[in-house]
């Protein structure tokens, strides 16, 4: 009754097994995202799916450097129609893996373990991990630039661990097409960590804003990808994780920014995004007024599930524990379905 893990595999297994092998780089490169773990409201999921299908997915499809793996953490109990869509995408993309999880907090340790095991199986001495959210996009040559920076760090004998960050991009609102150029020294998009496989921890499990500090505290290296290049497209929506968890979003501030303007089609194409216009005609879900209470109770339910799960490891066939486990998961789904009016 512990964490069940699944990596989608389908036709084209030879290509799938070699994806992200790092044979040309000397390191394994793994990008990672979480796709709506703990989300069960289908209106919310449908809007998030449209963002994912319009932004993150074509952005990674368009990467000019193909030697990477994209691990997408998914909820093992997600509504079937969305799981079938993801399975269909994974079946035709050698670089995409679906990591099936019970809870959101399971993502970081399972992702770390998978990367470590894969690096060991491939004999990769180094691991490069990259963050990307499921509603954002990156410039089509970003992964190539990150890998070039990583190779340069290794060839020069720079100290590890090493943080590689893309500092400039667009912050925008897909529903209106408005945005502005933004700077962040260590954004959640594209920020990467290069580590020796023997000392691997992954880019996750750390505050992305403090990743350069974390690296420096360990006598490592920091490299910024800057210049005037817009490396990322950061979406601010009514369904952002920050808004969901805190009630404070960036959407209105993005529109009101003095530098806000329409992000045109040419700029969007540099991220592999060609159908962003359709997002303007899709209504964004509206959270209920008491959604923070629902989210807080959901966190308590998740903690209770962890406790029962620990007991089930000791007594896996205990009927009372199994019943409690099912009851808690039912409540978890009920709470998440109630987010939207």
Q: Which keywords apply here?
A:
five-stranded mixed beta sheet, 12 strands, about 350 residues, 11 helices, disordered N terminus, seven-stranded mixed beta sheet, Spore Coat Polysaccharide Biosynthesis Protein SpsA, Chain A, alpha/beta
Instruction: Detail the poorly predicted runs.
Output: 1-18
Percent of residues in beta strands: 15-25%
Instruction: Supply the helix-strand structural class.
Output: alpha/beta
Mean pLDDT: 90
Looking across the biggest beta sheet, what order are the strands in? 3-2-1-4-9-6-10
Separation of termini? 33 Å
**How large, in whole angstroms, is the Cα Rg?**
20 Å
* Principal-axis shape: globular
Provide the CATH top-level class of the largest domain: Alpha Beta
The helix content is: 25-40%
- CATH architecture name of the largest domain: Alpha-Beta Complex
What does this protein structure show overall?
Pfam families: Rhamno_transf. This is Rhamnosyl transferase. About 40% of the residues lie in helices and about 20% in strands. α10 (about 290-315) runs antiparallel to α11. It is α/β, with parallel strands linked by helices and about 350 residues long. The strands form two sheets. Strands 3-2-1-4-9-6-10 form a seven-stranded mixed β-sheet, with helices on both faces. A five-stranded mixed β-sheet has the order 5-11-7-8-12. The protein has helices at about 15-20, 40-60, 80-90, 105-120, 140-155, 210-215, 240-245, 250-255, 265-270, 290-315, 320-335; strands spanning about 25-35, 70-75, 95-100, 125-130, 135-140, 160-165, 170-175, 180-185, 190-195, 220-225, 230-235, 260. It starts with 12 loop residues before the first helix and ends with a helix. It folds into two domains: about 15-280, Spore Coat Polysaccharide Biosynthesis Protein SpsA, Chain A; about 290-335.
């Amino acid at each position: 009754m512990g964490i069940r893990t699944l990596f989608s595999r389908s036709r084209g297994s030879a290509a799938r097994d070699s994806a992200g092998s790092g044979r040309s780089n000397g390191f394994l490169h793994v990008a990672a995202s979480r796709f709506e773990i703990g989300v069960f409201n289908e209106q919310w999921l449908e809007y998030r799916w449209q963002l994912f299908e319009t932004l993150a997915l074509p952005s990674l499809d368009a990467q000019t450097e193909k030697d990477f793996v994209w691990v997408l953490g998914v909820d093992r109990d997600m509504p079937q129609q969305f799981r079938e869509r993801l399975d269909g995408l994974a079946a035709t993309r050698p670089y995409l893996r679906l990591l099936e999880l019970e809870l959101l907090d399971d993502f970081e340790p399972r992702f770390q373990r998978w990367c470590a095991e894969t690096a060991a199986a491939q004999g990769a001495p180094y691991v490069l991990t990259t963050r990307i959210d499921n509603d954002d996009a990156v410039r089509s040559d970003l992964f190539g630039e990150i890998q070039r920076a990583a190779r340069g760090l290794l060839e020069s004998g720079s100290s590890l661990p090493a943080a590689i960050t893309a500092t400039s991009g667009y912050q925008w609102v897909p529903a209106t097409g408005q945005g502005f150029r933004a700077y962040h020294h260590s954004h959640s998009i594209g920020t990467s960590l290069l580590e020796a496989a023997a000392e691997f921890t992954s880019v996750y499990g750390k505050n992305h804003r403090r990743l350069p500090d974390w690296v420096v505290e360990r006598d490592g290296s920091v490299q910024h990808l800057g210049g005037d290049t817009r490396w990322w497209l950061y979406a601010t929506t009514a369904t952002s994780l920050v808004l969901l968890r805190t009630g404070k979003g960036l959407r209105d501030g993005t529109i009101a920014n003095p530098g806000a303007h329409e992000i045109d089609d040419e700029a969007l194409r540099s991220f592999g995004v060609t159908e962003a216009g359709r997002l303007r005609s899709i209504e964004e879900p509206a959270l209920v007024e008491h959604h923070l209470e629902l989210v807080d109770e959901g966190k308590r339910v998740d903690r209770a599930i962890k406790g029962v799960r620990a007991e089930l490891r000791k007594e896996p066939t205990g009927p009372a524990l199994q019943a409690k486990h099912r009851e808690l998961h039912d409540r978890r789904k009920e709470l998440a379905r109630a987010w939207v009016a």
